[in-house]
Structure formats: C-alpha cells, structure tokens
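Team,

Forwarding the record for the chain on the shared tracking sheet. I've put the sequence and predicted structure together so nobody has to dig through attachments.
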Amino acid sequence: MFSARSALFFSRTENQVALASFVSAATFLMQWHLHQDQLGNHHHHGSNHNNGHVTFCDAEPKNAGPTNAAGGKKTNPEFSSQDMAEFGPNSSGFADGANSGGLDNTTMFYGQCLARQLRRPKIPYPAWDYDWDHRETEATSQEALSGQSQFNKSKSLGKTRHLILIRHGQYDERYKDDRRRKLTPLGRHQAELTGQRLAVLARGGLQGGPQLSPAKKDHVVGAGPLYIKSIHVSDMERAKETARIIHSHIPHVKLNDPDPMLNEALPAPMIPIRPDIRAVREIDANHNRVEAAFQKYFHRADPNDHHNDHPHHPHAGSSSSSENPQHSMEQNTDVESPDQDHSGAGGEHHPHHNVPSNPKHEFEIIVAHGNIIRFFFCRALQLPPEAWLRISTFNCSMTYIMIYPNGYVSCRMLGDVGHLGYDNTSFSGSHGYNW
C-alpha cells in the first residue's frame, strides 16, 4: 500500500500536470475560436447535422491556412500520388459525410492537419452545448439553467454518473500479435495497486467510511461507500488483463464482456502536427468507432434506468441500459442474503450487500487506453479533441469524470498516479519522469 504522504506528493505533481494540460487545451481553444470564420465554422453556414450533432467539417474552407508557392492548396506531405488516387477528392471516409462539399486530401488547416478531419461542433467553441448527449429537457435548457433557483434544483433531477477511466498497466511491446502483448511484472503490480485503491474508494475509506459521531454524520456531504455499477474494458489483451486484476479486488462489481469499441486507435488529428506519426488512414478507419464509444458511455443517467443491472440486485438483467447484462465476463445474478459473505482478496469486507434501490450517485470503471482516454477527456469537457496528444496519461493512471443530471460535466482527476508511487510509475517503456 502506498503511504498517505507519497499519495499526496504524487497527487500534487499530477495536479500540476493536469493544470498544464488544461492551459494548453484552453489556449488552443481560443486560437481555434479566432479562426472559426476562416473555415466557415458557424453552424448556420452549411454544417452537416447528424441528429443535431456534427462530427467533422463538411464545407469548403475560405482560407484553410498556408498555400503552396503557386497559390494553390498545400499538399499534405504524408500522401504520395498513389495515396491521392486511392482516397480521391470525393472520398467519404467518415460515416457522417464529412468529406462532402468539395474538401479533399490536400486542403490543410494551417498546414497542421487535414481540414476535413477537424471536428466541427454544432455550437462553436467555446460555447457550451447543453444538448451534447441529446438528453436536454426543458428543465436543463440554457434558458432554465440561467436562473439560480432552477440551476440549484437541476443537480437533483436524477443520478450523477461518475466515470473512472483507467489506462492499462505496462505491457510487453515487442510483439505485434495482441494476444502476446501481456502485462509486464511491473504492469501487473500497477494493476494490483490500482485495484487496491478502487477497493478503498468502494469501501468509503481505509476504515470503511468516516468514523463520525451520529450528531456529525448528517453534516457530512459525500461520505460513505460508493456504488460501483460495473467495469467496462476494451478487447485488447493488456486492458483485459488489467481489468481482471482490478476486479479481483472488487469482486462484487460486475465485469462486463470486452468491448472492441474501446480498443486503442488514433482517434482524431493531432495539433500541433506530429510529422513522425502517419495518422490519416488510421483516423479515417477508427474515428467513427471511437466517437460512437464516447456517445455510448458518456451521457446523463437514463431516467428509466433504475439500476437493476447490479449482479446482486433482485432484478438484475432487466436494466434498460445499452449493455446486455446477460453477457458478462463474470456474473452473479443471485440475490444476496443479509448474512452472505462479502470478503474478497485479503479477506476485506466489500460494500453493496444492501444495494440501494435508487442511488443518487453511480460509478462505472472503464479500463482502456491512453489515446482513447485522452480523446474522451477532451470530448466530455467540450474541448477541441485535436488537443488530445498534449495530455499524458501514465500506465494505470486514473482519470475521473462526473456527469451531473443537468448535463454539466466536471473532471475530478486527470492522469492521477498517486496510488502508484515513483518506483511504479511508467509511460509505456519509459519510467519515472526524466524522458
């Protein structure tokens, strides 16, 4: 177990990293906003709406950045003439028709990425889209939430969702076959430490919750055990192995079947440009899948979801959520009796022997990959996803996103490794921080 002092030190260090990431993303956001008109980026100028949602640009830019010496479009140096013939100016690499309107594989955004691969939100940055998950109601509209009284009420309109995103542990990168890319001994230890931290969170502290007198308990907000609904995991070996180790520390939580939608990929262009990464084809091939994964997992709580998919709930399996609880890696649909044993690894007592019928807070764990987590972070906070590579997430780091019933989103942790300690911190093959 890590000490409280070391956890505090590394949490502070990670907070500094998180602050730098926020500043970097915010700087890019303001730069983007200043150049919106140069790409005709107002939603009333020919944007391609897809059920009220825009993914990539689809209008011919007026001045998409630098041109060549002849004054024409600047050709992307990543493409050969054969590549150009393969894609063609009328290619439709994205399901939402992002390449319509005349954009091709030569039109660059300030020489840094293909203009057609930029995200074009229906409401220009930095304005907040109140219907970002298509679940806006009259009570959660911008007009309603502009009033103090309604805003205060809006936080109690339903459940608050808590998403804990965990990058897999360090793994053996020598092989191309994913089945052989298993965790290293350090990676397994990182997963063990992460499982221990989540077990502490689930219990509500090292002592199973704050030791308060009855007179003081009513004045404590947010104390006590957490209801962790389930663990989601990608279909890649390093993530599945990490999830299994984590699950051994919180066996009362349902571990879902692997979801290929969470698999690693280059999810969006990278600004500033990375000439060492040939990304265009992979972004074309994977963006829609990663975007669909974001929409699957990031949204306000379903008002019709009465939390029946917990494996120990009397009506487990009848949830209206998008997942099928009948298909899980490890499942127990038996109803727990009050005297049933809840001891897990190390004989520790686990919560949820009395599952609340309608909890106000609901936690889900997603074990995935660095690129996916960084993309999710930017999308959830409505920051330009092209800034994703400016953020660094270490192995078994923890990123924690809250989604309130009114649709507001908050980040409580970004790449937190306070539970690992210096000796167990790694970014792929790099250790510590001197790299």
